[in-house]
Amino acid sequence: MPISQSNQPRRTLLLTGASRGIGHATVKRFSAAGWRVITCSRHPFPENCPWEMGPEDHIQVDLADPVSTQEAIAEIKRRLEHGELHALVNNAAISPKAEGGGRLGAIETTLDVWEQVFHVNFFAPIMLARGLVQELKAAKGSVVNVTSIAGSRVHPFAGTAYATSKAALSALTREMAADFGPLGVRVNAIAPTTTLTENTSQSMRENEARAERLRSRIVLGRFAEPSDLVGAALFLASPASDFVTGQTLFVDGGWHAAG
Questions:
Q1: Is the model more confident about 206 or about 147?
Q2: Residue 1 pLDDT greater than 70, yes or no
Q3: For residue 29, what are the contacts with CB-CB under 8 A and spacing of at least 6?
Q4: Which of 65, 91, 118, 240 has a Cα-to-Cα distance from 44 of 20 to 30 A?
Q5: Beta-strand (E) ranges in 53-114?
Q6: pTM for the complete prediction?
């Protein structure tokens, strides 16, 4: 007889950037699939979050600060049952804007902004994966990095520091796959197009003509919703993709393929 779902060991996800948008949708989807979700963000646990164990499984951390990140890693280790982490989804990212919400280009972006963006978007994912490598190895786990289509082309809203950090994260995904693979840990990425979150929606309202030009490039004719991305993340985190590593899955409504 098949083993019932209740007798299966519960899988654990560590999710960064869980306080809004894509993070909220990811928590809902993984929780519905029976996962325990440990969340990390720079904000305290929001009271309106939907999962029962949210307050107990939330860690407040400033991923722009390496010391805070290391402290969070130690706390995560203490919370993991049996020393196993089945999936790490590196979703946290920042994309600073110019005054008035405009795009920050290469000339205008100051060094401190470059450093902050790269600490959150690039260094934190590898710090977390390295710091939790034994827990990922024990579970034969999976790392999913959330990159962006902005990492492969100039984007009308995404600033230069954000775009280059995401391009670097794509390259890091490939390198991590080679280095973590012998440990039985898979590393992949999802690359979304513009996704309708609170921040991006505001930018598009302020630049409607630019937003319409961007939407017209998407083959499916609409921007992504956060829920559009989480199915790809769940697939790459789950045994359904056990022989997939080093890949970037574009979840962009066909923009990448159309050129």
A1: 147
A2: no
A3: 227, 230, 231, 233, 234
A4: 118
A5: 58-60, 87-90
A6: 0.86
